[in-house]
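Bench notes, afternoon.
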Amino acid sequence: MSAAMDQFARVAHSPGDWLKGWKAKSGKKVIGGFPLYVPEELIHAAGMLPVVLQGSDKPITRAAEYLHSNVCHPVQGNFDQALRGEMDYVDGLVFADVCEQAKRAASLWQLYHTVPYRFNILFPHILNSQAASSYMVKELGRFNVNVNSIAPGMVLTDMMKKIPMEFQAKALEETVVGRFATPEDVAHLVTFLCSDLSRHITGEVIKIDGGQYM
């Protein structure tokens, strides 16, 4: 445990040096982003390493030329590192709608710290709405990513089995097929949607409820 913590401390103290070594060893690219809302899973799936840009505890030296003094330290610190040439390990940047300061600073990065890949991704803060689903289909579609939703009915989980029997009986009566879904039923649909067999399906809400909510 001590050796692992020592290694973690070394990486945390100088993440740039570790990432340069990782790139040299793996031959892969590093994509930086501010905390929250950056789609790390998609970056991993593309064979790249997502890295949270946490700023630095060093004094701000260059960023004050471009940013107001009341801008938060993570925004100033990251931009300051970029201006000093300390982010040369980053191959691309993803700017999400974290806050107004970070969003507005994205334009400065475009002017003063160019990288091969740069994306602005805006995510709705309320995702359980039809408008949000339609938006996400279009927003992530430009990266060739399909977006679908799964809407299960009653599923035979341990928690569901604790529901009073009268409620279970009523729900079962509402189904067309006369049975509840199992976790495996839902998993099969997830597996299908994650495969190339569903590569032309996007923007759908797929019910898996045995006809309960027709």
